[in-house]
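Internal QA ticket QA-208
Title: Verify multi-chain structure generation after dependency bump
Assignee: T.L.

Test input:
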Amino acid sequence: MTHRGYRYRPTGPGVRNRGFHLPQVPDGAARAAALTVGAGVLLVGAATLLRATTQDHGVRDSAPGRTSRQSFHGAYAVTGRSVTVNRPRAEIFAFWRDFANLARFMENVERVETRGEQSVWTISAPAGATVTVRTRVVSERPDEEIAWQSTEDSDIDTRGKVLFRDAPGGRGTIVEAIVAYRPPGGQVGRLTAKLFQKEPAIQSRRDLKRLKMFLETGEVATSQNRKAA
Amino acid sequence: MRALTFQGKQDVRVDTVPDPQIVNPRDAIIEVTATAICGSDLHLYDGVIPGVMSGDILGHEFMGRVVETGADSTLQKDQRVVVPFTISCGKCFHCVKSQYSACDNSNPAEKQDLTEPLYGHALSGLFGYSHLTGGYPGGQAQYVRVPFSDIGPVVIPDGPEDEEVLFLSDILPTGWMAAENCDIEPGDTVAVWGCGPVGLFAIQSALLMGAHQVIAIDHYPNRLALARRLGAKVIDYRGTRVLEALKEMTGGIGPDAVIDAVGTESHGLAPDNVLDSMKQKIGFGADRGHVLREAIMACRKGGRVSVPGVYGGFVDKFPLGAFMEKGLQMRTGQTHVQKYAPDLLRRIQEGEIDTTFLISHRLPLEDAPRGYANFHANQDEWTKVVLKP
Ligand SMILES: NC(=O)c1ccc[n+]([C@@H]2O[C@H](COP(=O)([O-])OP(=O)(O)OC[C@H]3O[C@@H](n4cnc5c(N)ncnc54)[C@H](O)[C@@H]3O)[C@@H](O)[C@H]2O)c1
Ligand SMILES: [Zn+2]
Ligand SMILES: [Zn+2]
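Actual output:
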């Protein structure tokens, strides 16, 4: 593990700090392709292990950890994105902290409900299925950071944080979201694999762009010519 | 409603499609009273810009009457408006800097995946111009859904005819910005490649901005005649060695600024252009950079290169050495229409700019496919087509 930037470092029970967790192999026609990808991951895995050990003693660059060519950190897949939103920091923090708002710009999130300490995320998965993720806030600094972690009874083991800081030159606020997750086994695992592992970075990129659209313009752009039925 | 739809390479058709609705609060619905076919549409027609799908409604130069407004639109029913082809939110970093065609928020997030890998950044939304720029249904139709209608549309007071103001939607500001990007100084010669609508408005603009002389280059006699009528000197590249002529017409110096108003579909049998045409046919995202190369070679040392002509992919044999060693500057981009339209409207109203001289054909929307075929194949006579839905 290297220690640069905001690289996510999972700790605590249930976290394996060795080796690589291969993605779940999806069903059917995609199997052959996934196996090829799997072989690629093994190769990349070996190379990255080497790189990780040399890097611990070598010179590190200033780039955020998530831009590393390695995308698995321990058993966790990590994805992160940042976006600059032309709005004041406190406003964006407040918007995000009201977790129900997240469904307004996160494409796969159907709703987020607050139950006491917990937030219950209903996430749509392929073929009409849904996955339930339960999280609780583990740390919070007003207008700066919110970090969360899934609870024991969650379908997916995930943790993440979002950071807010002033952009230079009056450009608004830099919002940086980092999410790590460990896909479980079984049916839910397969759904999760389909949901996240195809292109984990794409979803977070799109979601943050929608957040920016919503906060800057009051709406989320669409080229649909008619309202959804 | 009736709308012109893309079906395939050089195949467009007028179809009946569902009417648009208000979808977002800042939307308005416009009933189109006049719309035009642009040289940019020809790149789609020829299939050299990727990301156009069968059934897409084309058209990005249009105006009309407001028939419906969303809760946050500032337009009023029955207002007459010209709609910029660039869709811009007015609130993002770029819009605030008047870089409207670089808007961050108008291309739907799921469409931005297409251009981010291709260009390094996602493009803004444009009407009727492929899914790279949002897949927005275009203006060659009876009705258009106009997003961010509080920022884009220019309200036109009574007075000017539709035709006089229609080109505020694109080609007039495009020609104007092309000339502005030349930073014209007294005594300057500006050379303009392409006497299509964009080139013609660039010529007119450069002269208004005080260019000493404008030299226009094309091969169509009628288009060259239009350029000459505006006050340009002209070069027919089929009979004249362009680089030599430009030097001789500028006392051996070369033009101070050059404008590529042709873009990726250069005509002619220059060897580089023949090779590029072959690559373009195979469809590797290869641009035909003949005009840009020639313009860079022609430009005087320390001069300016302005590129309103559209390119979509990669260009070979870019004369980077000439560009660097001569210390040239290049400026380009889809036009920031909203930045220029109000001032240009005033100039039209005051009779400073002639906007209708280039219209050669007026057709009903139903005849749009004929308009495309001729604007494409008979460019000399068909200089600009206006469609009336
Ligand atoms: N930047 C923008 O926002 C913007 C807006 C509108 C149009 N455009 C682009 O501007 C370009 C011109 O548009 P238009 O509507 O005038 O198109 P057009 O097709 O009507 O005109 C192009 C002209 O270039 C001439 N030409 C071709 N090869 C030439 C060569 N080798 N040397 C000299 N002239 C040559 C043609 O004969 C024709 O007259 C297109 O690429 C179009 O996509 C850009
Ligand atoms: Zn155009
Ligand atoms: Zn914008």
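Spot checks passed. Residues B 88-89, 91-92, 94-95, 103-105 surround zinc ion (ligand 3) (CB under 6 Å).
Status: verified.
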